[in-house]
Amino acid sequence: MTQETVPGRVALTATQLITRNGANRQVLLVDPHPGGTWETWMTPYSSLVLDEEALKSKGQELGEELQFLRISPGASLKYLADSLDQLASVYEQEYRQALEQDLNNVLPDLTGGWHGEPFYTTYSLKFSHTSRSFTAYRFAFYHADLPVTDVAVDHIWVDVDDFSTVEKSPAQINGKEVASNVPVAVRQLLSHMKE
After folding, report:
1. 57-61, 72-76, 103-107, 140-144: segment of lowest average pLDDT
2. Which one has a higher pLDDT value, 192 or 50?
3. For labeling, which of 38, 45, 49, 66 is most exposed (least CB within 10 Å)?
4. Segment holding 13, helix H or strand E
5. Cα–Cα distances in Å, from 46 out to 14, 62, 109, 136, 184?
6. Poorest-confidence range of 10-14, 104-108, 142-146, 191-195?
């Protein structure tokens, strides 16, 4: 990690792999952003976003500096992942409350589905144009088999079998890129369901 990529904020994000049964199991993908911006299919999500000031305040409340605030140039991605796991534990109550209140939910008309433990977790570091800094993301994937009738944002149902080809190359479905963590999460879900 370089000085420029040291993250200034965190997004503890819960994502839903919403499926429906039929002859072929399908997964719901959405593009909640205005047309002409991201043009990316992703899973519905809700998140708790924390900036450096909130983290410092929480550390003072706990009487210790949080591991995330000690990230410096040269830190490994493993260290970043461990610090995000610590934050998920420290902020568990606020995180669960954010999910119940659909905080930063891209699909607020779809509630629920955040119960139990996630079946898969990933970590990433991305530049956020909103905050004009790098944000560290912890994506916890939950499975939900919810009755979905009307979705207010651009969406598509994709057969899970279609993800095997999506994983093999830069993924596009109906002219939009598929978020890179989606095919892997689908594979993880299918593996988890076989257990």
Report:
1. 103-107
2. 50
3. 38
4. strand 9-20
5. 5, 26, 12, 15, 19
6. 104-108
∠ CA 14-93-124, rounded to 5°? 35
How many angstroms separate the Cα of 12 from the Cα of each of 136, 149, 195? 8, 28, 27
Average pLDDT over all residues of the chain? 85
- Quickly list DSSP for 102-116: TTT-S-TTS-----S
The residues with which 143 forms a beta bridge, in sequence order, are 17
Helix (H, G, I), strand (E, B) or coil at 130: coil
Cut 0.85: pTM above it = yes
Half-sphere exposure (CA, 13 Å, Cβ side) for 95? Answer: 21
d(CA 10, CA 15): 15
Tell me the one-letter amino acid at 41.
W
Q: What is the mean pLDDT of residues 58-65?
A: 91
User: Phi and psi for 141 in degrees, rounded to 5?
Assistant: -95, 125
